[in-house]
Amino acid sequence: MSLFPSPPLHPLSQLGGNRVLFHVPCRVAKVVQVGIFFLSTARLSGEGCSLILKPSRVVVGFGESVSVSCEATRPVRVLGWESAIGTPHTQEDQSVQWKVDSLIDWIEEPICYGVFFKAPRQCEEKLNLVLYKSPDSVSIRLVNHTGPMMEGKEYQLLCEVQNVAPVQYLTLRWYRGQTEVYKHSFSDLTSSSPVQVSSTLVITPTKAENEAEYKCVAELELGPEGPQPPPTVSSEPLTAYVLFPPTFFSPETEVLELTEGDGITLNCTAAGNPAPAYSWQSSHPIEERVKEEAVITSSSLLPGTYTCAASNTLEKKSKQFIVKAKTKGKGEV
């Protein structure tokens, strides 16, 4: 007499604990009788299980095909797969395949089970399956601000990622130019289906960072079984235009000696955004053509004090040049 059911058992009711009531057809010679049996639903899993999954961990892209083999390491009555998609697949061979042509079920958790001739008679192994999807888009923007930024003021940049899964494998990397400045992981989240997430970067720009480009890169770090290199999607760069007042390259007062007949240069160049405008003042006449230049080179300047002003919409700064006549040494004519 064989007590193993064919087709598989279907529970009638739960009796509590690990006991379930089943309706089981039993074959005795050619007569089929119906009996009521109490069977344990407990299944052994883990190291003591006599099932091997090949591969044991699978990383598959949304809509891609997947195939996994389940092998029994000792004689087995029935070997099969329990899966949310498709019909249950069982057979009496030592191995059985789970195969999907296009995997699109985010809650799929395939389990291979075996019913053996000897104890432990029931055993199962759950497939470590990772179904992933790269983001539809990654974008970056300023929060509550438009236009240029002010030097020394705090701003927030927001990176938004649309429809990525699984989020716990996602890392967002912030870059200024080619330098990574911040990394944000989402390992504390557990959603298996696509979600929208965001990350914030706080910056205090300096004049040295004017026209620096920021970008956000979404990277799915799926482990050695996943694609290499890891899938990445990058935002378009955001250029930071930083406004700052004029800053002289040499702010201190300069003293220059004037040799009669030789030219002399007064350099008032300053950095600034917007670009500075220049003006000159002195008790001596200055040629009109150079009054708005950053640099004056002339052989006709007279000894005295010359003041240069560099100004933009933020501030006006001044610098002085003191021109002295070079005294003749002994023996000079």
From TrEMBL:
Keywords: Cell adhesion, Disulfide bond, Glycoprotein, Immunoglobulin domain, Membrane, Repeat, Signal, Transmembrane, Transmembrane helix
A Gene Ontology term for the protein's cellular component: membrane
MF terms in GO: integrin binding
Keyword Membrane: yes
Pfam families: C1-set (PF07654), Ig_3 (PF13927)
GO biological process, one term: cell-cell adhesion
Name of the protein: Si:ch211-66e2.5
Naturally occurring in which organism (per UniProt): Nothobranchius furzeri (Turquoise killifish)
